[in-house]
């Protein structure tokens, strides 16, 4: 595979780097590096404004296989360049990831022209934020078991609508989102993945939608429970029609791990560098066992990068083309990041069990960056599809092993 950057890519890199340098000023500079995993509560006002700044310049939607919605078009290598430069500039963590990288490609593949024209331009402008209504208390990894219902309401003089009733959980950004794409059961007589539909639901429905934050052991609450009590969705906002929700939902998951994983790895490299510097400064790097673990973390991170480039550079890359590639990627980075958090605590030693170095009993207790890394990364092998489910997908869809009995 030849994945080298050509002259046009380097020109694109120079443009991206110059734009970021020019615009990451004032309140955006103050928000630099904020909003990552476990810190989504940081600088919310500046980060929402930053989405609109990106949109005005056309930097949202580079990975869409289309243009004309307010986005600029870019080749795959240029998308990688942008992701890398964005991460290196320590630009604020994105609020619009779910709309830009999950919903938009799904609408381009499965949506009607009316749905594309309605929803893609506001995403590209950074004006409308989205959340994902998939998991439920009894249907997390087993997504086909969703019990949230959507009942068609044909009464009244206006257009037909659906009334949605049920509960979703672990919904990132639900407290900030303007819209939610919801997987719900429209045929109560169907079982499992049959009879499901994919609906686009406005979140601003007081009395019909309630969002409750879930407080985590990091002290933050970027995840939420969402309760739908007769929430309304237009019949024209059902993607690919009633009963085809499972196909649309699985297509969306195929877009979930793409170019953005490379930017994620740059953030991982920064965290690893912080752990290495601490090990050198504290003298713990002299321990041959710990030093071996540090080297292994570095080597595995490089392996993840080359695997991501290989996957993205494959002529068959795309949603649904390789059922195993997203699962392999998730297994790699989830376990790696969790082990990095454990290694960070080992490097810090006994001090890791207490507050930051400058903490005093008179000050509020707060986690430092490495403590937050350790605590938040405990969930890395669970959210976004647990390791067990990813191994099942690889076993059944790639290796052809027998499916687990239900």
Automatic annotation (TrEMBL):
It is an enzyme of class 1 (oxidoreductase). One of its GO terms (molecular function) is flavin adenine dinucleotide binding. Its cofactor is FAD. Its EC number is 1.3.99.-. Transmembrane segments: none annotated. Coiled coil: none annotated. Residues 7-127 form the Acyl-CoA dehydrogenase/oxidase N-terminal domain. One of its GO terms (cellular component) is plasma membrane. Residues 131-229 form the Acyl-CoA oxidase/dehydrogenase middle domain. Keywords: FAD, Flavoprotein, Oxidoreductase. Residues 243-399 form the Acyl-CoA dehydrogenase/oxidase C-terminal domain. PANTHER family: ACYL-COA DEHYDROGENASE, ACYL-COA DEHYDROGENASE FADE29. Belongs to the acyl-CoA dehydrogenase family. This is Acyl-CoA dehydrogenase. It comes from Streptomyces jeddahensis. The gene is mmgC_10.
